[in-house]
Amino acid sequence: MIGHSIGEFVAATLGGVFALPDALRLVARRGALMQAQPPGGMLSVRLTLEALLARMPPDVSLAAENAPGSCVVAGTLDALARFQAQLEADGVACRALRTSHAFHSPMMEPVVAPFRDEVAALKLSAPMLPLVSTATGDWLDAASAMSPDYWARHLRQPVRFATALGRVLDTPARVLLEAGPRATLSTLSRQHPGVQQHHVTAVATLADSPAAEPATLRLAAGGRSHLPCHHYVTPPFRPR
Description:
This protein is an alpha/beta fold. The chain has helices spanning 7-14, 20-35, 49-55, 77-89, 109-120, 142-145, 148-154, 161-168, 184-189, 193-197, 213-221, and strands at 2-3, 41-45, 60-67, 70-75, 94-96, 175-178, 201-204, 229-233. 40% of the residues lie in helices and 15% in strands. The chain has a four-stranded parallel beta sheet, with helices on both faces. Strand 3 (60-67) and strand 4 form a beta hairpin. Helix 5 packs antiparallel against helix 7 (148-154).
């Protein structure tokens, strides 16, 4: 399983790392700590990671690598506005995200220590299901899964979804099943060259509206239940 940003807590809970009541309290506390920070913003940029890093100003930081040509940066609203103007002047597609803060950026640094204390007060277990970390882009080992330091750094580090997806694609014959609402991650997955090269199927299970969800769920279930899959849980940057 892979969880994008806060979705990794869902994946870890389903995998047995967190007890559900503990996970609910932990996610609520994480959100409260983040919301208490100064306001900021996030900007989606249609550039490869290498091209983005080459032109990114020092007052803006990488927040997510969602696909090989789709990244997100974060920072103060003024810094993002300046960077957006530069990108648009050069013809680079970019779009401000609807978010109140600069998640996965240095602006979250004050949250790291108090959130670590929150995690340290809980009993964590080794995962019972394979999890891929979107903080490291690799398999989440038992020591990291049970480490308060890992979960504290997780909210500060960029989301390496594209790298993590590449790790999943090391094994052939995968079916990618998105278990969260909308089709954000299955859409991003289809942009990955590994998905295209190996003709991997990426399927969303829920739709944008309640009315469309029965048909979407039936389509996702049709004929694929016997194949191995990885679940992507909760869309990115939807703070509750």
